[in-house]
Write a structure and sequence with these properties.
Oligomer: single chain
Distance between the termini: 33 Å
Number of strands: 14
Strand content: 5-15%
Number of domains: 2
CATH topology of the largest domain: D-Maltodextrin-Binding Protein, domain 2
Shape: globular
CATH superfamily of the largest domain: Periplasmic binding protein-like II
Amino acid sequence: MRGKKLVIALALLAMIGAMLQGCGKGNKENSPSASSSSPASASSESPKASSEENVTLKVWGDLGNQAVLEEPFKKINAAFAEKHPNIKLEYDFAQNDQSLNVALQANELPDLFWVQGDKTAKMGEMVKNGFLLDLTPFNLDLSRYAESEKAYCTVDGKIYCSLPSFFDTNVVYYNKDLYEKNGLKAPANWDEFVAGLDTLKAAGITPIALAGKSEWDRAWPIFAFAPAFANDALKAAQSGDGKLTDPAIAETLQAFRDFADKGYFGKDFLAQDYTAAQFAFTNGKAAAIIDGTWSNATYVDSGISLGRFPVPNKDGKKVVQSSYSNFMTYAVSSKSEHPEQAAQYIAFLNSVEAQQILEDAVGLVPTLKDIVPKDEGVKELAVFDEAGVNIYTVLTALSSPESNTADVLMKDVIPKLMTSAITGAEGAATLDKAANYPAK
């Protein structure tokens, strides 16, 4: 996660599905099934569990997060190679939106590549069009995982990727030195949070660095505000028991506009990219940045006196966006010539050994009890009262091939809120118009 970079509009997915329907059906016929030759179990970490034939697997890593993931995946892949000397990995950080789209259109996927599970409709569309290998027949050991983690990888009752083992959310990373210098501490409630931003602005410090140029990174404040303000309203909208015009949702969007209007994001945030926003925070020009838990290692490595807190609501309750990390959730192409060996790599990604390597390097919030948190900072990331909904996931669920509600938020509503072109209530009305509510 940052899984955020791989999000494709449902309209594009429908187009790709139409273009490739024929070859997609052919891929499904090549997938292993219980009635075909029985694959060796991938639950064992011994190379004896699959053929001893020397093979090469082409694997695509997350290009957008290469800086964070390169070192841990070198170690993960080295550990896998020790256990499976007959399997050579050609692991390249080659995957982004563009490269994946090209590979799908050409039907030339690598053996393995990362997916976002049920966080978006993308994996389901790839399954529908025959691009992914059903991993169910390989008898992966899923005993360590909760049902929600299995559901992340499941389409129509079948498993299609390695399972998530880390939790993603958005928090406020803050410079403890700047906060203490200005008589501030981690806020107990929303009003205290806003009052602290006013204090910082009055002192000539940008309260929150924001990457206004980056479609995803400028959205993180709304992703953090939404569960704090409107968790119940978003749940009701997703189930069809409510609407996106709920006042709590309008208030969420208005809070984001208010932050822009009041100068909490600084003067030039509209022209600022993600790298510049991070640099403004780490060099002390901005007192805080709202970002994902996946970026924790970046801020730790900067050397600043780092603190973290979830956005509190008006009552002081800390309800955070919940999402599974896709840093280790990989799928296998249905056209892979080495499905058994690819399944062995999936099995290793599912192991505590591989997961602990990533945790020790990056410092994510584990969802499995046998993964040891890297340090006290990771524990601080997990200090919240409730794991709430992910507004993007809710809006994706309310989308249709004709109207992608999540895309409307990202490409229409947020830019207009940042430039004061619409109010929060108008933004909520725009989302409501785009939504496809479930029938009741």
